[in-house]
TrEMBL record:
Belongs to the sugar phosphate cyclases superfamily. Dehydroquinate synthase family. InterPro entries: Dehydroquinate_synthase, DHQ_synth_AroB, DHQ_synth_fam, DHQS/DOIS_N, DHQS_C. NCBIfam families: aroB (TIGR01357). Residues 67-176 form the 3-dehydroquinate synthase N-terminal domain. Binds 1 divalent metal cation per subunit. Can use either Co(2+) or Zn(2+). This is 3-dehydroquinate synthase. It comes from Corynebacterium ammoniagenes DSM 20306. Signal peptide: none annotated.
Length: 356
């Protein structure tokens, strides 16, 4: 078992191990809850029922709520339904919610927990690689509205996060590859050993029996350090957006049909090229990005001919200040800097390279 402490206003632990249901149930009981709502996606109804059984065996009253898959589950109708159910079941301030699923579920379950009675406990049990290494850790919760994704939300730290390595065996290979983009991102911003592992043996890095468990732990440790120091994204937490400015623009252009990790991979290639054009990194660091992303099957290029549209999307990025585009960039592996107001010529040049 690996346990990673997350400091901050409400410290908690991320537990990484196999077969965690008993540990989750014990933790839920120890929080002082009498009632627990388990929120899950349709595809994991069976694991949700097993977890519910274990929670009942601890003497807890359990309600199970299935929510629509992916971003559809983050429409405002979902929390409305869950708030209604919490009311019908008389959930009080001391009760708890378990978010069992991908990032959409952990974001939404966290949001419902943050808002019910101004905040009840949430236990996050991420089941996708992306949610394990990113969404479920750090207390960002939110839903989508017609104004955009995650514009309505709250910082609400979980009482614990449980990463069950057993789940990795059930994930499609493409999902492991896409989720790995966020692991690689944490390597580039803060943990060079992660990058070394991808250089050493790319296949082992996406193998649940290979380096993958170690990489998850390393990536969570990076995220824990960052959010422990800067929960509300006043500075350091912005570094977790490495590759995301261009990545979000690609996702928007693709109507969110691209996997998030694939968009982040292309976004990292874009910022690497831009950083090179700005004189921040050498060509070998750009080549390193290309090599490790490509070696595990992540995309490193994007279609030509869409610069203006992508540029427009980047101008709406939440990190921008006073009308200036603002990127998280590298000065080397493990060292970040802020790149503000790059010229449109350099932005276009970076795009031209990754789309040629
Ligand atoms: N996914 C970026 C963050 O948690 O801040």
């Amino acid at each position: 078992m690996t346990t990673i402490a997350v400091n901050g206003p409400s410290p908690y632990e991320v537990v990484i191990d196999h077969d965690l249901n008993a540990g989750i149930a014990k933790h839920a009981k120890a929080t002082g809850a009498d009632k627990v709502m388990v929120v899950h996606q349709p595809a994991i109804a069976e694991p949700a029922a097993e977890l519910a059984e274990q929670l009942r065996a601890e003497g807890l009253y359990v309600v199970v709520e299935e929510v629509p898959d992916a971003e559809a589950g983050k429409q405002v109708e979902t929390p409305i339904r869950l708030w209604d159910r919490l009311g019908e079941e008389n959930f009080s301030r001391t009760d708890a919610i378990v978010g069992l699923g991908g990032g959409a579920v952990t974001d939404m379950a966290g949001f419902v927990a943050a808002t019910w009675m101004r905040g009840i406990k949430v236990i996050q049990v991420p089941t996708t690689l992306l949610a394990m290494v990113d969404a479920a850790v750090g207390g960002k919760t939110g839903i989508n509205t017609s104004a955009g994704k995650n514009l309505v939300g709250a910082f609400h730290e979980p009482s614990a996060v449980f990463i069950d390595l057993q789940r990795l065996r059930t994930l499609p290979a493409q999902e492991i590859v896409a989720g790995s983009a966020e692991i690689i991102k944490t390597g580039f911003i803060l943990d060079p050993v992660i990058i070394e592992r991808y250089e050493q043996d790319p296949a082992a890095c996406i193998d649940p029996e290979g380096f993958l468990p170690e990489l998850i732990a390393r990536s969570v440790a990076v995220k824990a350090k960052v959010v422990g120091e800067d929960l509300k994204e006043a500075g350091l937490r912005e570094t977790l957006n490495y590759g995301h400015t261009f990545g979000h623009a690609v996702e928007l252009r693709e109507n969110y049909r691209w996997r998030h990790g694939n968009a982040v991979a292309v976004g990292m290639m874009f910022i690497a090229q831009l950083s090179y054009a700005q004189g921040l990194i050498d060509a070998d660091v750009v080549a390193l990005h290309e090599r490790i992303l490509r070696n595990i099957g992540l995309p490193t290029t994007y279609e030509p001919g869409h610069f203006d549209e992508l540029y427009q999307a980047m101008t709406r990025d939440k990190k921008n200040r006073h009308g200036n585009l603002r990127f998280v960039a590298l000065t080397g592996v493990g060292n970040t800097t802020r790149l503000e107001g790059p010229s449109v010529e350099n932005l276009r040049a970076a795009y031209d390279v990754i789309s040629s």
